Amino acid sequence: MKNKFALNIKELRLLAGLKQIDLAKILNTTQRKISYWEIGQIEPDLDTLWLIADFFNITIDELIGREFKIS
User: Fold this and answer.
1) Are residues 20 and 13 in contact, defined by beta-carbon separation less than 8 angstroms?
2) Which of 26, 27, 45, 55 yields a CA-CA distance of 20 to 30 A from 17?
3) Of 53, 54, 52, which Cα lies nearest the Cα of 29?
4) What string of DSSP letters covers the chain?
């Protein structure tokens, strides 16, 4: 099963109407890396997570699909 980040990055990209190459240019990376992220083969480093979250105006927690449980 794909990790939450892989699912979220693809959904965010599609909702923004971007191709993988478009997002790659925005994030100063390669289309291949975007593809690998989306299939869950690799994950970005922390600095890149910040860039992605900032671009989509969300938190890193939202980006990686972290769920909070409040007791």
Assistant:
1) yes
2) 45
3) 52
4) ---HHHHHHHHHHHHTT--HHHHHHHHTS-HHHHHHHHHTS----HHHHHHHHHHHT--HHHHHT------
pLDDT tens track, the chain, 71 positions: 468 999 999 999 999 999 999 999 999 999 999 999 999 999 999 999 999 999 999 999 999 998 766 66
Angstrom distance (rounded) from CA 22 to CA 37? 15
Residue type, 29: T
Q: Which residue has the tokens 């997002």?
A: 23
* Confidence (pTM): 0.88
Distances (CA, A) of 6 to 31, 37, 43, 53, 62: 14, 6, 8, 14, 12
- Which residue is listed with tokens 């599609």? 14
